[in-house]
């Protein structure tokens, strides 16, 4: 009797834990220690659940005493895997199709370079081959950004360069952004502020014509930085409170973490929607590049206000050996109206 009671309690505890992991937003736990980290890696969690389910199933077949408990736990893991797979399926396992770029379209490239690791040549080559108009580079020094701009100018695409560095000791505390001269002159909006631990750059057009451009770098949600991470997400949502905004960079968060920070839609920050979700790419992981993309965390984003329509996106997966732990993303945007 006592063993059955303990088994029932264990099953209930496991069921509750898997429910929280599958959809922490249901309980408002998407930004708390544990769920915040684990929900980022939905693909890996599914793989782990399937492996554990198979192991429990085999043990249940081999042990009569464990059969009922093992079968129950295996069924819970199966349900978790199916629900989580359904969530990822609605977000999209990858569609790299692009419409033909129109003259008014803007291509955005973003790459957290892990402190300039890929080098200026690799960054510039990707930006040029992508026909990028905006390049956001978290963890990239001004020196490297200027070198990238020089190479892009040589390639026929001159760019303006802006960098904010909180210090010059760690390149992780620098964020650079390049904008095509075709977009006009931009300046850093000092009044807009920045994220707390790592810098984000807010650029406004000098003549008032054109989108506000935000290069984002939120701090990672480690237990020590959790308060700052939450504050960063609120700050980023505030960057997108107005009209005509393009944000791109390392948000260190997935769509799950955005719940409660948008305009009523679970996948928005402020008034900005995620380009990956709109193009069925939101289940494709951008970090770490050492894991297969569908097992990784989609924490790098391009987000825009409703002024823009997404006409193509891809997570670049052929540069995983170029030094950064993040994959670059490329998004094509078309102005509405």
Q: TL;DR of this structure?
A:
This protein is α+β, with helices and mostly antiparallel strands and 337 residues long. Helix content is 34%, strand content 20%.
Q: Level of helix content?
A: 25-40%
Largest sheet entry: 7 strands, mixed
From the N-terminal CA to the C-terminal CA, the straight-line distance is 69 Å
Estimate the global geometry from the Cα principal axes.
elongated
Strand order of the largest sheet: 5-6-7-8-11-10-9
Number of strands: 13
Our count of domains comes out at 2
Rg value: 22 Å
CATH architecture of the largest domain: 4-Layer Sandwich
Full CATH superfamily name of the largest domain:
Endonuclease/exonuclease/phosphatase
Percentage of residues in strands: 15-25%
CATH fold naming of the largest domain? Deoxyribonuclease I, Chain A
**Mean pLDDT across all residues, rounded?**
95
Low confidence ranges: none
Plain-language structure description:
This protein is α+β, with helices and mostly antiparallel strands and 337 residues long. The chain folds into 2 domains: 90 residues; 230 residues, Deoxyribonuclease I, Chain A (4-Layer Sandwich). It is built from 8 helices and 13 strands. It has a 7-stranded mixed sheet with strand order 5-6-7-8-11-10-9. A 6-stranded mixed sheet has the order 3-4-2-1-13-12. A hairpin with a 2-residue loop joins strand 9 and strand 10. The longest helix is centred in the first third of the chain and has 28 residues. It is elongated.
């Amino acid at each position: 009797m006592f063993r059955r009671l303990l088994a029932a309690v264990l099953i209930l505890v496991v069921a509750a834990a898997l429910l929280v992991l599958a959809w922490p937003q249901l309980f408002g736990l998407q930004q708390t220690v544990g769920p915040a980290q684990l929900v980022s890696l939905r693909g890996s969690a599914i793989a782990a659940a399937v492996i554990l389910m198979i192991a429990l199933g085999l043990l249940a077949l081999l042990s009569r005493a464990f059969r009922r408990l093992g079968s129950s736990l295996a069924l819970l893991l199966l349900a978790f895997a199916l629900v989580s797979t359904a969530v990822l399926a609605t977000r999209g396992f990858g569609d790299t199709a692009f419409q033909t770029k129109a003259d008014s379209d803007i291509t955005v490239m973003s790459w957290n370079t892990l402190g300039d690791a890929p080098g200026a040549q690799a960054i510039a080559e990707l930006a040029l081959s992508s026909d990028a108009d905006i390049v956001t580079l978290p963890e990239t020094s001004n020196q490297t950004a200027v070198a990238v701009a020089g190479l892009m100018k040589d390639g026929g695409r001159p760019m303006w360069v802006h960098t904010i560095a909180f210090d010059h000791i760690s390149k992780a505390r620098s964020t650079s952004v390049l904008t095509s001269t075709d977009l006009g002159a931009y300046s850093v909006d000092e009044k807009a502020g920045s994220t707390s631990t790592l810098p984000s750059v807010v650029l406004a057009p000098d003549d008032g014509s054109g989108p506000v451009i935000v290069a984002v770098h939120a701090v990672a949600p480690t237990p020590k930085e959790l308060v700052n991470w939450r504050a960063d997400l609120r700050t980023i949502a505030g960057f997108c409170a107005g009209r005509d905004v393009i944000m791109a960079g390392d948000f260190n968060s997935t769509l799950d973490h955005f719940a409660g920070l948008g305009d009523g839609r679970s996948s928005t920050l402020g008034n900005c929607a995620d380009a990956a979700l709109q193009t069925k790419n939101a289940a494709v992981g951008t970090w770490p590049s050492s894991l297969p993309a569908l097992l990784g965390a989609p924490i790098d984003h391009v987000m825009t206000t409703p002024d823009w329509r997404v006409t193509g996106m891809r997570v670049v997966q052929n540069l995983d050996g170029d030094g950064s732990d993040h994959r670059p993303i490329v998004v094509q945007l078309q102005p509405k109206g």
